[in-house]
Specification:
Elements (H helix, E strand, L loop, with lengths): L3 H5 L2 H4 L9 E4 L7 E20 L2 E13 L5 E5 L6 E11 L4 E5 L7 E5 L3 E3 L8 E3 L5 E3 L15 H8 L9 E4 L8 E11 L4 E11 L11 E2 L2 E5 L5 H9 L20 H11 L23 H9 L19 H11 L9 H11 L16 H12 L1
Helix pairs in contact: 4-9, 5-6, 5-7, 5-9, 7-8, 7-9
Length: 388
């Protein structure tokens, strides 16, 4: 595998930000047969010099702008290959420096000189530790100098990568949806997506620059769905949200103008969604079996009673339903599994529910861990897959 210093010299040739790009759903790749990247963005034209510092030396390249994204913008990356290759993802943050920074530029053996950089975008520090990789939970972890960096052969070894970094490696057909952290409006994120096949030594990559802007400045041209300002036709869950709105499963959040796709869901909300999708049937009994479900006027009361009567849920133990507990992926899948008349009980209920959901296509296109919090978008997506 070539070292990272080899491909740094190709950054100029590999730049992706050429030309005017209107607001749209991003689905772009220099190598469309390897992976896809989908997100919402608006191209902002601005000449910016980037200074990538490494070991007190600076590699420079010019950009004609960046992609502006709104707060909470999701990115979905999919490995499109059917071979032994995998995809991994990381980003590098840049920030506008106010103070002068005296660093070597280019390689010393090639006659590099010291330059005084000021008022330009540079990396947070002078090492490789300013890189953050996407981990096995779909979040971000810093690469530490004590393990490896992307200029190390070991970094491209899947066993080393998973063992040392708990990294997320997308195999054939796998996807992951994530958001970039929000480290302030002066930060530019250089997002890297790599494809690597250890059997053939085949590897390709691309990078794109993103920056958070005001929502008004980043409103995408992709039409919105069901009257929600934060759900677009290009979103994988768009049809599911439209189905949920039309069927009265949910009317949105706040004043109904938003759906809040990334927001967490409580167990009370999830059971209510399922109950409404089933036609809001009247429970046979009027008395709740759970100590924490005691208000007959609560929006979730009939839904919880119906779910308990039909065996969809037995609560969280101790006579409680767990109204305000955050819903996990395996819990919503267990609800749907039992609602379909299948078994998801005992100590292996989670594995049984996830296996049933996968066999029935409910989780197609999703990458998740069973015990992770399931956001509103994915709750509705799974409901739609099973019940629409």
């Amino acid at each position: 595998m070539k070292a990272c210093t080899r491909f740094l010299s190709a950054l100029l040739a590999a730049a992706l930000l050429a030309g005017a790009v209107p607001a749209q759903a991003m689905e772009k790749s220099l190598w469309p047969d390897y992976y896809s990247i989908e997100s919402e963005y608006t191209k902002v034209e601005q000449d910016v010099a980037f200074y990538y510092s490494m070991n007190d030396r600076v590699t420079t390249y010019e950009s004609d702008g960046y992609y502006a994204i709104a707060s909470g913008t999701p990115f979905t990356v999919t490995n499109l290959r059917d071979d032994a290759g995998y995809v991994f993802i990381y980003y590098v943050p840049y920030t506008m420096q106010e103070d002068s920074l005296l660093l070597w530029t280019d390689h010393l053996e090639e006659g590099g000189v010291q330059r005084d950089f000021k008022g330009e975008y540079v990396s947070y520090n002078d090492g490789w530790t300013n890189q953050y990789y996407i981990n096995s939970d779909g979040g971000w972890s810093p690469m530490t100098g004590g393990t490896a960096s992307v200029d190390s052969e070991a970094f491209y070894d899947p066993e080393f990568y998973v063992e040392q970094f708990s990294g997320l490696l997308l195999s054939a057909g796998e996807s992951v949806t994530f958001t970039l952290p929000e480290d302030g409006t002066d930060t530019v994120y250089l997002l890297w997506v790599w494809y690597r096949n250890p059997e053939t030594d085949d590897y390709v990559w691309q990078y794109s620059e993103f920056k958070y802007e005001d929502a008004a400045a980043t409103e995408p041209s992709s039409p919105t769905v069901a009257g929600f300002s934060d759900v677009y036709e290009s979103d994988y869950y768009a049809e599911a949200v439209a189905w949920a709105k039309e069927g009265g499963v949910t009317s949105g959040t706040g004043d109904g103008a938003t759906f809040s796709p990334a927001a967490t869901v409580t167990r009370a909300e999830a059971v209510t969604f399922l109950w409404r999708a089933a036609g809001s049937p009247e429970p046979a009994e009027a008395v709740s079996p759970f100590s924490d479900v005691a208000d007959p006027g609560a929006y979730y009361y009939d839904a919880v009673l119906w779910a308990a009567e039909t065996g969809i849920t037995g609560g969280v133990g101790g006579g409680r339903f767990g109204l305000t507990s955050t819903l996990s992926y395996d819990q919503i899948l267990a609800f749907l599994c039992r609602a379909a008349g299948e078994s998801a009980a005992g100590s292996d209920w989670s594995a049984a529910a996830v296996s049933w959901a996968a066999e029935n296509g409910l989780t197609d296109g999703l990458t998740f861990t069973a015990g992770d919090s399931c956001p509103r978008a994915d709750v509705v997506y799974c409901l739609w897959k099973q019940l629409a």
